[in-house]
Amino acid sequence: MSIDASAADPENRGGTGPAGPGLTSREIRLAARPHGEPGPQNFELVSTDVPAPGPGQILVRNTWMSVDPYMRGRMDNRKSYMPPFRVGAALDGGAIGEVVASEAPAVPVGATVSHGYGWREYAVLDAAAATVVDTALAPAEAYLGVLGTTGLTAYVALTDTAPVRPGDVVFVSAAAGAVGSVAGQFARKLGASRVIGSAGGPEKARRLVEEFGYDAAIDYRAGSVGAQLATAAPDGIDVYLDNVGTDHLAAALDALHIGGRVALVGAISIYNATAPVPGPTNLVLALTKRLSLRGMLVTDHLDQFPEYLPLAAGWLADGSLRTASTVREGIEAAPGAFLEMLRGGNVGKMLVRLADGT
Predict the structure, then answer these.
(1) I need a surface site. Which of 89, 209, 218, 319 has the fewest CB within 10 A?
(2) Which CATH class is domain 5-145+324-353?
(3) Ramachandran region of residue 319, left (φ > 0), alpha (ψ -120 to 50) or beta?
(4) Do 18 and 8 form a contact (C-beta atoms < 8 A)?
(5) For residues 317 and 312, what is the distance between their CA atoms, to the nearest angstrom?
(6) H or E element at residue 312
(7) How far is CA 276 from the centre of its chain?
(8) How many C-beta atoms lie closer than 10 Å to residue 65's C-beta?
(9) What is the pLDDT of residue 356?
């Protein structure tokens, strides 16, 4: 179907006319809010005319987009740290693309940029909302993963939120995911003496040890997380990076030493819950062990990119930082990729390739 061209502009700031004769873009819209686990019925693929960029704007042909756990919360109509998606409107999220038209001299045609208007093949946006990235430093898609907010999340969690000190024993949940697969390696670079990760299934557990630098892996599907953590870290842990919540957080509270530190980064185990989920029954240990449990949002730490990017790029270049991604092809695959990611079907960053190019 074809609809009003202004819908291609995430903030309805469309240009003065079509970007080119017959230029259209497909986008994914929120068809209905989910109750519990989302499904295909919550998404709609729509074709729309593409407006020309207005003054100070650029038109980007998206080549890569990201799907991330936080997007699930935005599908619900509740107040949070980011506004909810609107039913009937295109979703948004991290994307990389090539500038194909520009009314902003600072961002010329041909530049590769990262921006927040994914879930569509073309995006018109203010140039100030885009960041030009250096594809000579790393592949374009790396700026949605290890060189983007994903990598920065892991870095800030372990340097600031729950800082790793030399000799620490570190535990990371969802360790085969986008954040976790690099977090264990960062912990090692920060001086950890032992790094333990949890993941679902024997194949992921194998990859944690063989590819991502973990000393031990817990398969949470194979038995009690607490019992496995006690075996992997018989003398306890110092730092826990929490991407899961529930049983993983409870197990970490049991294992943490006095003065231990927890970075509360995510709680994917409860994102589809339809009723309040009880917290750990052993939370009193935070008191008796004098633990620090601290939440973090990476958006509070974007000023650390200048410090982080050269470090991470150098580690990528010298081969001491290993990354992985799970790639699905085409805008029509984006809803399935999102649902697959929520169910733990990815290793590393889940990405959707929208077009060839950058």
Answers:
(1) 319
(2) alpha beta
(3) left
(4) no
(5) 9
(6) helix 305-318
(7) 24
(8) 29
(9) 83
